[in-house]
Design goal:
The complex is a heterodimer of chains A (about 280) and B (about 300). Chain A has about 280 residues and is mainly alpha-helical. Chain A has eleven helices and no strands. The two termini of chain A are about 25 Å apart. Chain B has one domain: P-loop containing nucleotide triphosphate hydrolases (Rossmann fold, 3-Layer(aba) Sandwich), CATH 3.40.50.300. Chain B starts with 5 loop residues before the first strand and ends with a helix. Chain B has nine helices and ten strands. The radius of gyration of chain B is 23 Å and the shape is flat. Chain B is an alpha/beta fold. The chains are: A mainly alpha (about 280), B alpha/beta (about 300). The interface between A and B is medium-sized, with 25 and 29 residues.
Chain lengths: ~280, ~300
């Protein structure tokens, strides 16, 4: 097996998966709703002055990105996987000299590419709204609010978007793992949403671990903390965009990215173990 | 002796059913060999194990026990599939691609060298008679056209073994005849073809050998002529015989120690009759059009 051939096949499968995905009405509807929501965020608040408004818009935008991005990660990955199984295009594909791991990796990358588009569009819209409101505020209140040339660090808005995209990647990989042994869309979606809630609240287990005495309960909590990724690590939007003094170092961002990548690879490999035994 | 295209030995496949560990046996101790450059028919009613056998040959399922080899290599190896082309039953393809793009896509998946792709795609599209419709989207294709473009994608990497699962299911007699002709052409090009079907009339004139499966077991295997011919009887097809002549023939048969088993009118199969009629109308239509253009 030539590794370059393998990458070519993964790229080709990812390409068709992505094309299938962007043609789905669900994706386009969700994208339009998200854009409309982020675009209208400024009308959702009663602002007083200055950075309060920008903070609200940022939180609102980041919230919308997380909420709709999570829904998209789970539903799009599920739909893309089960479409292949139900339409039996997977049968045609896997009857070729294609490894099941290549097929799964291609499916994941196609879905992740879709999520990249979604994240990029929402981040662009959010940045546009922020810039518009920032200019309006500066015109009204003068330049005394400006720190380091701008109220908002726009580069970090995109960095936050990138970290959310990594989080969506973990969610998509987990969804693929569940789909690899599940027989229905609904089961896959429900289990994946439970996983999302657990990962969002996983920090509670970590806190409990630090306050526990040595024993099997501590080991259990540690195990749970390792099995489920901690999604709170990715929620550093405030530090990135507003807090100049507490802005995380590049190494921290890289560590978070690496942390996400490890879970993505682990879930895809686990999916492959199930998929090998699955009847197609 | 050359390596058989497919060698299946004592193949059994059980599926787990329900939560109590119950097992459903889909294929039961199957032994089969398909020779190189042979058209082999895998026949049987629905649920007889044809598709399961094909999936095991393609490495999509693992056998519970037994072995399956393609040209001497275990079929579960991905590399063994380089020499295999497969057309699934009722194929579904990405509807937004054109026929040409679809075949090209699978050519790239099969790692056909870039410099050869265009020629390979054109060649198989021509072989399956889809040149005119190749630039149309797959979503606009009829059932017969889908089967033909499906055949093209299965052949684009020039496999030695071609597996066709119910290739004529849901296709009209004209489409079936076209597919049968492509299969014959593949044999002339030295390919081995394994096809499964429960439409026996379409298979009869096509296969060199057939195997009949029932409830996962091999019931019969052999050359079509050997299986269906009545070995102790011969038929004479006679034209223009009077009643007296016929009585004389019957008397002579009796005198020679034979017995006239039955007298019947030779019949065309309905398939053959339909194709003959359509073909004649097509010729008439073409002649009329030519006449119209000249005048």
């Amino acid at each position: 097996m030539k590794i370059t051939d393998s990458f070519t096949r993964i790229r080709l499968i990812a390409g068709t998966t992505f094309l299938e995905a962007v043609r789905q009405k669900f994706f386009n509807s969700l994208l339009l709703i998200s854009i409309a929501l982020v675009g209208s965020s400024t009308f959702f608040q009663q602002f007083d002055f200055g950075t309060g408004e920008l903070k609200f818009i940022t939180d609102f935008g980041f919230g919308a990105l997380f909420f709709f991005g999570s829904i998209l990660s789970i539903t799009a990955t599920t739909q893309l996987f089960f479409n292949e199984m139900e339409n039996r295009t997977a049968l045609t594909m896997l009857a070729k000299p294609v490894y099941k791991l290549e097929f799964l990796a291609g499916k994941f990358l196609g879905a992740h590419l879709l999520l990249l588009c979604f994240t990029l569009v929402i981040t662009l819209v959010l940045s546009g709204i922020l810039y518009w409101r920032e200019m309006a505020l500066l015109e009204r209140l003068g330049n005394e609010l400006i720190l380091n040339g701008s109220l908002i660090r726009y580069g970090d808005v995109f960095l936050f978007g990138f970290l959310q995209w990594m989080k969506f990647g973990i969610l998509a990989a987990f969804t693929l793992f569940v789909a690899s042994f599940s027989n229905t869309n609904l089961y896959t979606i429900v289990v994946s949403f439970f996983m999302l809630v657990i990962c969002q609240l996983q920090y509670i287990a970590r806190d409990a671990y630090t306050s526990m005495e040595a024993g099997w309960e501590r080991i259990l909590v540690l195990g749970l903390g390792l099995i489920f990724p901690n999604f709170q690590l990715f929620n550093i939007g405030d530090q990135l965009v507003f807090d100049v003094e507490k802005a995380p170092a590049v190494s921290t961002v890289l560590q978070i990215t690496g942390y996400g990548a490890i879970y993505v690879v682990a879930f895809i490999l686990l999916a492959q173990v199930n998929f090998r035994r699955r009847e197609i | 002796m050359s390596t058989p295209a497919i060698r299946i030995q004592n193949l059994t496949k059980d599926f787990a059913v329900g939560m109590r560990g119950m097992k459903l046996r889909a294929v039961d101790d199957l032994c089969l060999e398909v020779g190189d450059n042979e058209i082999f028919g895998l026949l049987g009613p629905n649920g007889s194990g044809k598709s399961t056998t094909i999936k095991i040959i393609l490495g999509l399922l693992e056998a519970s026990t037994g072995t399956c080899e393609i040209y001497g290599r275990p079929s579960k190896l991905v590399d063994a599939r380089r020499s295999v082309g497969f057309l699934p039953e009722a194929p579904y393809f990405y509807r937004y691609l054109t026929g040409r793009e679809l075949v090209r896509y699978y050519a790239r998946i099969c790692m056909v060298p870039r410099v050869e792709i265009d020629a390979a795609v054109d060649s198989v599209i021509k072989l399956v008679g889809m040149t005119e419709a190749a630039n149309r989207r797959v979503g606009t294709y009829s059932k017969g056209m889908l089967q033909r473009i499906g055949l093209a994608q299965s052949l684009v990497h020039d496999p030695q073994l071609v597996i066709l699962d119910e290739p004529t299911a849901g296709v009209d007699p004209l489409g079936s005849a076209a597919i049968a002709e492509i299969v014959r052409e593949l044999k002339r090009r030295g390919k081995t073809i394994l096809l499964s079907s429960h439409l026996l009339a379409q298979i009869e004139g096509l296969c060199d050998r057939v195997a009949i499966l029932h409830r996962g077991k091999l019931v019969r295997e052999g050359r079509v002529d050997d299986l269906v011919e009545e070995k102790d009887a011969e038929s004479l097809v006679v034209q223009g015989l009077s009643a007296e002549g016929r009585a004389a023939v019957e008397a002579e048969i009796k005198a020679q120690g034979g017995r006239l088993a039955r007298v019947e009118k030779p019949r065309l199969s309905l398939d053959a009759y339909f194709l003959k009629e359509v073909h004649e109308r097509e010729i008439e239509h073409a002649t009329q059009q030519e006449g119209g253009e000249e005048s």
